[in-house]
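Re-run with default settings, no changes from the original entry. Doing this only to confirm the output is reproducible before filing.
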Amino acid sequence: MSEKIGQHEGGAVLELKGLSKSFGGLHAVQDVDLKIFPGDRKAIIGPNGAGKTTLFNVVTGVLPATSGQVLLFGEDITGWQCHRRTALGMARTFQITSLFPKLTVLDNVLLAIKGLRRTKFVMWRPLSSYRDVYEKARRLLESAGYWNRRDVEVRNLSHGEQRQVEVILGLASDPRILLLDEPAAGLASGESQEMTEFLRRLDPELAILLIEHDMDVVFDFADHISVLHFGEVVEEGTTERIRRSEKVQEIYLGTG
């Protein structure tokens, strides 16, 4: 869709209005309000069971909302399926690695790009022969600093590198907003720092919303943080405000 470009400049990329999700009597997400603009680097934190992944699932269309609205570039997409949200400019990565380990980095990216297109590909025709797809894969890998690793099989990359490649796959649909579901999950401290530096190199106009348990990544990357507790936003503000918040230290960091 062409709606991604042009007329949305200056407005909110993503807006949540009173977004809620219940499972029977369990209120997993309650009345969440959030606005994200181009270039924003925002994070959602909270203890296990706070409702972070459920919130992402509702925002991306994996789960239907119980009430409230999801607006993408001002358009109400609350009832839309995932693929329509992707076409309008939303992309998401997942906690669990979803790469093809025996394929090269380049082939993984080529498949991600090809999977978003309506044209079918012929099994006996090499992926590299699809020139426009190949050139787009090259641009993605070059911008992420991975072009020189293109022929490496994914299984031979470190876990941290595999997580970075997953982010590159998330960029295959040319999103205007990228939702990252714990990109540092399972990473050692050094790899987490590398992930933070990798994310900083992404397009500065790309809006990024992440949920993450690694507080070093959150504090080093995000400029605004929302704290989710039992499905509700109980605190939000700048990184420094959240870092100093006694409420956050009590409910999230286990102090107090």
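DSSP finds nine helices and ten strands in the chain. Strands lie at 14-23, 26-36, 41-45, 67-72, 75-76, 90-93, 177-181, 207-211, 224-229, 232-238.
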